[in-house]
């Protein structure tokens, strides 16, 4: 569902679905979070994207390279290049290795 909302550029609804899932104690995993982060990026909602990324540890979900790449992309599309570069620098601290996609999204 969240992935479909991401494709249709409905980030607000994707975030709401994620919140309802968590409230109902349904399983929320990295794929759900990545889809919501991606939806935000496509709509240039970089702040919401970053909020979702930073909430992942609270939900006991380990962010992945895709999570960071989607947030970096959201920042880059919104001309928030300093934040994009900051996220790129944070990846090794989260034991994640930046890849071509994350580097490309940052520039």
Relative strand content:
under 5%
Uncertain runs: none
Report the count of strand segments: 0
Alpha-carbon distance between the termini?
30 Å
Describe the structure.
Helices cover 67% and strands 0% of the residues. By secondary structure, the chain is mainly alpha-helical. Helix 2 (11-23) runs antiparallel to helix 3, helix 4 packs antiparallel against helix 5 and helix 6 runs antiparallel to helix 7. The longest helix has 13 residues, at 11-23. It starts with a helix and ends with a helix. The mean pLDDT is 90.
Which characteristics define this entry?
107 residues; mainly alpha; 7 helices; globular
In brief:
With 107 residues, the protein is mainly alpha-helical.
SSE arrangement:
Layout: H1 2-7, H2 11-23, H3 30-42, H4 46-55, H5 65-77, H6 81-90, H7 100-106
Helix pairs in contact: 2-3, 3-4, 3-5, 4-5, 5-6, 5-7, 6-7
């Amino acid at each position: 569902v969240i992935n479909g909302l991401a494709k249709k550029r409905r980030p607000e609804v994707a975030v709401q679905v994620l919140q309802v899932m968590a409230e109902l104690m349904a399983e929320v995993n990295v794929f759900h979070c990545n889809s919501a982060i991606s939806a935000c990026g496509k709509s240039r909602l970089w702040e919401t994207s970053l909020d979702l990324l930073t909430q992942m540890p609270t939900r006991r979900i380990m962010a992945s390279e895709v999570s960071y790449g989607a947030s970096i992309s959201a920042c880059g599309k919104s001309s928030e290049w300093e934040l994009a570069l900051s996220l790129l620098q944070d990846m090794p601290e989260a034991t994640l290795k930046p890849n071509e996609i994350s580097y490309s999204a940052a520039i």
